[in-house]
Write a structure and sequence with these properties.
Bound molecules: zinc ion
Number of domains: 2
Structural class: alpha+beta
Radius of gyration: 17 Å
Shape: globular
């Protein structure tokens, strides 16, 4: 389910009061994002709590918080680098961005790799309690990507198909590559 459908169905709870359901409340300022170097415009949804009336802006799950490139572009770069060992320069060319930008993605992902592994491992087992333990590969970013893959496959089986990196953005509240100390939402 996309952000818009989930919002209309009343699936989002207000983070300010923790009680009310969020309802659509117009749109926030347009956000410029990049899709392999091409500019795309996004109109983030603004919503308001039915109970305390605080307004929030919902990040569309095609993007990560404070990253200009689409989640899918960043996700494919992570897979190419850590799974397939593609060089940084080649990854940057494919993604249509500067080599320093992909270096930033890799560094942020590697820094949070252990937390990402734990969060997606928990999510995978919550979606499918019969799942076998995920075998470690001995390299933190690879273990994190493995956990993401297993959780995404479990989500597809239980909830139906969704684009991989939109699922990842939605499951982490957009925080996958965030450098803040804000923890990822934990699924238990
Ligand atoms: Zn509220």
């Amino acid at each position: 389910m996309g952000v818009e459908a989930a919002l209309r169905a009343g699936h989002y709870r207000c983070s300010a009061c923790g009680r009310g359901r969020l309802r659509p409340w117009g749109f926030a300022r347009r956000r410029r994002l990049r899709d392999r170097g091409r500019e795309v415009l996004l109109r983030p949804r603004r919503c308001r709590c039915a109970s305390c009336h605080v307004t929030h802006v919902l990040l569309s799950n095609v993007a990560f918080l404070r990253r200009r490139d689409l989640a899918e572009v960043i996700g494919e770069a992570l897979l190419a680098r850590f799974m397939d060992g593609v060089s940084r320069a080649a990854v940057a060319r494919r993604a249509g961005v500067h080599a320093d930008t992909v270096r930033g993605w890799f560094r942020s992902f590697a820094r949070r790799a252990e937390e990402i592994r734990v969060v997606f491992g928990a999510l995978a087992h919550r979606l499918d309690p019969m799942l076998a333990p995920i075998a470690p590969r001995g390299f933190a970013p690879l273990d994190a990507l493995e956990a993401i893959g297993v959780a995404a496959a479990a989500a597809r089986r239980q909830l139906g198909p969704a684009p991989l990196w939109s699922f990842v953005s939605g499951a982490t509240g957009g925080l996958l590559l965030s450098n803040t100390s804000c923890p990822l939402p934990l699924w238990r």
